[in-house]
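FIELD: query
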Amino acid sequence: MSRYPRSADSVRSAAVVNEEIRDLWQRSGGCLSPDDEEKYQQLLVEWAAVTGGSARSAA
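FIELD: result
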């Protein structure tokens, strides 16, 4: 997977990205490998971009 953002014409919906995040966690059994962690971080950034929010919430 590319480390660069997707082009504007290939933006996925938040629901699609969220489903991919859920699938990643389910497949990993709740323990992400280093590769899965990288993918998860990329998905969080993508999700934040399509929702207009931040990938990290303020606590």
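FIELD: remark
Residues 46 and 52 are 10 Å apart (CA to CA).
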